[in-house]
Amino acid sequence: MLDSQTVKTMESGGPRSYDAGKKVKGRKRQALVDTDGRALVLDPQPADVQDRDGAVPVLRLSRRTFQFIAKAFADAGYTGDKPASATIIAVEIVRKPPDQVGFAVHLRRWVVERFFAWISRNRRLWKDPEATLASARAFLYAAAVMILVRRLARSA
């Protein structure tokens, strides 16, 4: 599953911009997670990067470590030629049913949203205080590791 989350940044500097769709000045976190909600690729970017443009580096990064990925599910923000032709990964757009009124959980899409909720519980990640994208990426992966360790502790 592929999705993005826009978060506000603090006055620490670093690359940030304005996401006009969410009306937030900050950074966008692109995330590729597996079907169980475990983080595979996390990539912070300036907020003005469109989802379809930000998906290209995420999909290309995933090919280095996770060659077995054949299909990625995404929302309508990832429609277009760029994500579809970035790698051999087939990007399937999960659309809402035409008769849907109000909120409804979509098949396969809730997994990545749940991942964003999990990492946002980390106090350091509810806003992005980092001065560089490298340190922001490091803290995203640290939060993902903490989630995995908690899962292992519960199962033991």
UniProtKB/TrEMBL annotation:
Biological processes, Gene Ontology terms = DNA transposition
Q: Cross-referenced Pfam families, in alphabetical order?
A: DDE_Tnp_1 (PF01609)
GO molecular function list = DNA binding; transposase activity
Q: Which domain of life is it from?
A: Bacteria
Q: Where is the region Disordered? A: 1-25
Protein name per the record? Putative transposase
Q: Which residues form the Transposase IS4-like domain?
A: 2-147
Organism field: Methylorubrum rhodinum
PANTHER family tied to this protein: PHP DOMAIN PROTEIN, TRANSPOSASE
The opening ranks of the lineage are: Bacteria, Pseudomonadati, Pseudomonadota, Alphaproteobacteria, Hyphomicrobiales
